[in-house]
Amino acid sequence: MMILVWNNPPTVAELDAALQQYPMRPVQLWLCFQGAPPRYPLPTHSAPLLAYALHRATCCAQAATLSPPLPLLPQVDLRLIPHHETPYIHAYAQAHHLQWQTEALPQQPLPPEKPWLTVPSAAAVESVAVIGAGIAGAATAFELARHGVPVRVLEAADAPARAASGNRQGLLYAKISAHATAQTQLLLAGYGYTRLLLETLLPEHEEWGSGGILHLNFNDAETRRHRQLAEQGAHHAHLYRAVTAAEASAIAGVPVTQDALYWQQGAWLHPPALVNALLSHENISLHTRCALQSAQHDGTYWQLHTTQGSFCASHLVLCCGAQSAEMDLLNGFPVRLIRGQTAVAAATPHSRRLRVALSGESYLAPAWRDAHTFGASFIANDGDSTWRDAEQHDNCLMLQQLHPDLAAELNAPAPFLRGHAAVRCDSRDHLPLVGALGDVDAMLQTYAALAKDKNYRIHSPCPYLPNVWVNTAHGSRGLVTAPLCAAEIAAQILDLPAVLSHSLRHALHPNRLPIAEIVRGKV
């Protein structure tokens, strides 16, 4: 892969000239920047296709971390590199050919990494089996498939997106902290990436809406968080801004009594539509009612035994969501189960005026196909996905707190339309598990000294399972985080330039969990 790098954002004409000068494909365009991320304005009618692609790709640009590869043209991706990551450009490019188009910026090696947080050497990829057809599995399959890899997706249910990805309407925005945490970086990078996927894969907007999201100041803590974000938001003013209740009312189309943070490019979507669009790639084969019963590595391939027969693959990616807790290969990687249930109510003449999604302790999506989705419940350590009338009642109470006037209308009709109940999968630190899986039994022996001293220096290479990766534990944030993490998984498997920053890759590495158990003396 060719990588063309600029130390400052170039013009559209300069980018176009570089693409003409370097006709080999695939190619990535890496644009370094200081301060606010570059954004390319909506071009005039006669502008080249590249100008339109740059405008679309940078609409949700962020300055917190590396951007993932943003598709511009066939075999041409854009990457935005904030100033604090520019010293590591050569390291992130890895073995790929990098060509500076301007004076090169000073480079330095990445900081040393713990042996259990490394990425194992890439092995030749013949085929990949992805376990699970929710948003994480579908996105992982898509990212591999678009690089020419044949992917087999094995799903236990009778169709994709039956579990946590099966809500009728979900929201896409980044509920971030005012601090530069790993989760804030992940959410900001993932938000723009999923938003671009929607534009690319579902261009007709029939099953998603881009009117924005109003996150209300529903308590003192949210008011403080929104104020802090607005005060430091110069770099991200195109993503979110503080609005008064009067401004929120004008945006929403219905009266709003609270100030809010307005995510002007936020969206609601029908998650199964995105999942199915991802799975429609020609290099993906989907097998439903195909529960994984056992998996063994024969020295060359993974032999997968399922309820629909046996399959083999050179690589295996676990995207099992709540089923992660029951997966033998994930023993030693503790996850938390969180039950959630949404509600659906028929739209009314007044509720149809709602133009944007409202969010607080719960959410309300605009009418789609003449019904609204709202909720959701959040019950920790509950793995039951059956429908509960009590939670329907709780969702109605939360809607009353979110918007009393709309609740009075939407809660009045009976019977209610049936919503969706499912179980989310989360981790102890609320970050997903993304990366190659260590062999936990071998790790317990190799790194046993950490139980006595967590800072004990151990240089022994991590014992990894052969060619097994995981993309799971996205909690309630999977629409934002799972596609970005899928791109990182594909980059690791295919030895592509790193998608996530060095620090973020470490923060999400699944091996952090068994190491934490060793340090705490839990094993």
From TrEMBL:
Stated name of the protein: FAD-dependent oxidoreductase
Example of a GO cellular component annotation carried by this entry: cytoplasm
Domain FAD dependent oxidoreductase, chain residue ranges per copy: 128-491
Gene Ontology biological process terms, A to Z: methylation; tRNA processing
Keyword vocabulary terms for this entry: Cytoplasm, FAD, Flavoprotein, Methyltransferase, Multifunctional enzyme, Oxidoreductase, S-adenosyl-L-methionine, Transferase, tRNA processing
GO MF annotation terms: methyltransferase activity; oxidoreductase activity, acting on the CH-NH group of donors
Stored Pfam families: DAO
Domain of life: Bacteria
SUPFAM superfamilies tied to this protein: FAD/NAD(P)-binding domain
Transmembrane segments annotated in the record for this chain: none
